[in-house]
Amino acid sequence: MTEKLYYKDSYIKECEVEIVQVLKEENKVLVVLNKTPFYPEGGGQPSDTGYINGVRVKYVFEKENIIYHEVDGELECGKALCTVDFERRFDFMQQHSGEHIVSGIIYKLFKGNNKGFHLGEDYITMDIDIYPFTDDMIDSLEEEVNNAIYKNVPFKTYIVDNEGLEKVNARKKFKVDGDIRIVEVDNIDCCPCCGTHLSRTGEIGIVKILKVEKYKGMSRLYLKCGNRAYKDYKQKHNVISELNKNFSTDEYNLLKSIDNQQQLFNNLKKQLSELKNQLAIEEASKLIKSTDNNLICKRYENKSFEEIRDIGEILSEKNYILVLASEIDKKLLFINNSDMQISCGKVFKEHIKKFNGKGGGRDSMAQGAFDTLNDLKEFYSFLCEMVKGGM
C-alpha cells in the first residue's frame, strides 16, 4: 500500500521517498514508491506529472491500493527525490475546487445533481440533470458561485465509514465498503471525493461558465476556473480590443457596429448577386446568338467556375449541349439538355482520367477539375469534337 502524501498536504512540491519496485510491462517502466506526492488519475481528475530523480513521470494510476508511476527512463530501487509539476497540480486544484462550488450552488438553487464530471486540460465539463439550463439560471449561478468564492472559507477533508457517512449532510447519498473521504465547504458543498483541493475558496479566484449544451437529456456545462478563466478573459479581451479598433467604437457599442456592418454586407451581397445574375443572362444570350446549332462550346480565361455555373444554369433550361470551361479555376462544366443521347456522367467516367482530371455527374450534367491548364484544354476539345461527331 502506497502512502498518499498529497492527502496530507495538497501543496507538496518535493519530497524524499523510497523506490520499492521497478516493473517493465509492454515497453512501459512502472515505479512503485513507499509513499508518493503524485496524485493518480481518478474521480474525473487527471494524474499529476513531475520527476523522480530527474526522470520524467508522465502518468500515475492506482491499482489495489498501490500507486504506479509510469516514467520515461530507467530507475533503480533506493532513495529518490520526487518533484511535482506544481503549476499543473495547482491548476487542477483550482478546477476541481471550483467544480465543488458550482455543484453545491446548483443543488442549492435548482436542486440539480452533478451526474458527470470531467477535468480536461483546457476546461471542465459537468453534466447536470436539469434541462433546459437557461441564461437566467447561468447568471444566477455565476453570481452565487463567485460570491461564495470571495467569502474565502476553508475546504475541509476527513474520512468517515458507512455509519459516519449517514451523519454527513452530503449532497450525494450512497453506501460504501470501508472508509470514504469527504470534502466539505461550510454552507456550500459537502460530498465524497478523492481529488486534490485548495485550502480556501478564495484561491479559486473566479469561475466562468463558457457554454451549455444538451447532453443525453441533461445539460452539459463547460467552465473554467482560476488562472484558466483569467487566460480566457485575456484572450477574449484582446479580440474585443482589436475589434474596437477596427470598428472605431468601444465594447459597449461593438455589437451595434457589427450589426450595422452585417446589414451593409448583406445589402451589398444581394446587389452583387443581382448584378452577377444579370451578367450571366447577358452572356447566355450572347452564346445563343453565336451558335447555329444546339452545341455551345466556350472557354473563358477570366471567369470563375462559379460564374460559369450561373451561365450554365440559365442555358440548362433550353435545348442545348454545353461545354463551358474556366481556365483560371481549371474546371469544366458539361450539360446535355438536348435530344441527343449522351450521358454526361458516363462520358466523364470513361474518359476524364485519360486527361488527368477528376470529376463526375449524372446523365444531364457533369463537372471536372484538372491539374494543368493544358489537360483542361485537351479534354474540352475532346468533348466538343465528340459531340460534333455525334450530331
Key features of this structure:
391 residues; alpha+beta; Elongation Factor Tu (Ef-tu), domain 3; Threonyl-tRNA Synthetase, Chain A, domain 2; Diaminopimelate Epimerase, Chain A, domain 1; 3 domains; 6-stranded antiparallel barrel; 5-stranded mixed β-sheet; 20 strands; 38% helix
Would you write up a description of this structure?
The chain is elongated and about 95 Å long. The protein has helices at residues 5-8, 86-110, 135-150, 162-167, 226-247, 254-290, 305-315, 344-351, 373-390, and strands at residues 3-4, 14-25, 28-33, 35-36, 50-52, 55-63, 66-71, 78-84, 114-119, 124-128, 155-160, 180-185, 189-192, 207-215, 218-225, 295-300, 321-326, 331-336, 357-361, 365-370. Helix 6 (254-290) packs across helix 7 (305-315). It folds into three domains: 3-84, Elongation Factor Tu (Ef-tu), domain 3; 90-234, Threonyl-trna Synthetase, Chain A, domain 2 (Threonyl-tRNA Synthetase, Chain A, domain 2, 2-Layer Sandwich); 271-390, Diaminopimelate Epimerase, Chain A, domain 1 (Roll), CATH 3.10.310.40. It has nine helices and 20 strands. The model has no long low-confidence stretch (mean pLDDT 93). A six-stranded antiparallel beta barrel has the order 2-3-7-6-5-8. A five-stranded mixed β-sheet has the order 16-17-18-20-19, with helices on both faces. A four-stranded antiparallel β-sheet has the order 9-10-15-14. Helix content is 38%, strand content 31%. The protein starts with a strand and ends with a helix. Strand 2 and strand 3 form a beta hairpin. It has 391 residues and is α+β, with helices and mostly antiparallel strands.
